[in-house]
Amino acid sequence: MTDAGPLSADEATFIAAARSGDAARFALVTERYRRELQVHCYRMLANYEDAQDMTQETFLRAWNKRESFKGHAALRTWLYRIATNVCLDFLEKRTPVPSGLADAGSEVLYLQPYPDRMLPEDPQESVVARETIELAFIVAVQRLPPRQRAVFILRDVLGWPASKAADALELTVASVTSALQRARGTVRAQLPDRRLDWRSPATHELTDDERGVVKSYMDAHERNDLDALTSLLRDDLRFAMLPEMGTTVMTAEDAVDSWVSGGLFQRGHDDWRGIATTVNRMPAAALYLRTPDDPRYRLFAIAALHIVDGKIAELTGFDAGGKPWLGLPPTL
């Protein structure tokens, strides 16, 4: 696998570090790639904690294979190749989904939100394009078989040419081209109303409309105003509360009724506070609950919202307890 052009300062420094056998020096050179590699692993795995682990495994494997880097490929390319194959190895061993689950798909059992504070800082990087980190995109990609998933991410998200992707995955160019065509068809079917040109300029900032809906969503919780909450939801709401259930399409009234029947907004689950945040470059509300026997509000759940024309079209809820990597205060 080759990238045209002479060695850059990064590659030269990396080769020197590899030859020195100095692990600390090696880590210093490779650390700058951690965040983007972690996003890459997250797209492959849909799970933040697994992505963290596989990124660390990538660096360990890179250290063990350091003598194989000759500078024929860019250092970033070499590391992405290792990370991709680390994820493929992990997916081969991941516990399969039990049969009989509603059409949740494997991604529902493993899906976790990605904290925006851990995204790469460069807003121009394709790895942080909002359209390629939103939950709907991550879920759609999980519908692909692992190797097809890798092809799609390398080719259509990172923009690698077919020959480079083929080298990374030890496939023929024809196999990569065929896999990409199949992957594109699956992703289009999963995201019929979304923009599919992943490499064109993408938005990163929330709109005023999105911020307003998040505030109204939190206010409705704090007031236990079920009518206001219902009015914020589209009547074809796509809802998931993970990992307990798969995605369900329901009316706004049915959604709120199901939450009430599950115990929310009833005594002991009716004293809420909220913090506006973002995950996966999506607007989100961190919800805190205070129970009668506890003087403090404790982090309960995080709701990631996809907002269309001032209404919540998709709501994905996650249990937020025990996840310090979300960067949210545990109590208020």
Automatic annotation (TrEMBL):
Subunit structure: Interacts transiently with the RNA polymerase catalytic core formed by RpoA, RpoB, RpoC and RpoZ (2 alpha, 1 beta, 1 beta' and 1 omega subunit) to form the RNA polymerase holoenzyme that can initiate transcription.
Domain RNA polymerase sigma factor 70 region 4 type: 137-184
Keyword line: Sigma factor, Transcription, Transcription regulation
Name used for this protein in its record: RNA polymerase sigma-70 factor (ECF subfamily)
A UniProt-annotated Pfam family: Sigma70_r4_2
Family: Belongs to the sigma-70 factor family. ECF subfamily.
Domain named RNA polymerase sigma-70 region: residues: 31-94
GO molecular function term, any single one: DNA binding
Superkingdom field: Bacteria
Lineage of the species this protein comes from: Bacteria, Bacillati, Actinomycetota, Actinomycetes, Pseudonocardiales
Biological processes annotated in GO: DNA-templated transcription initiation
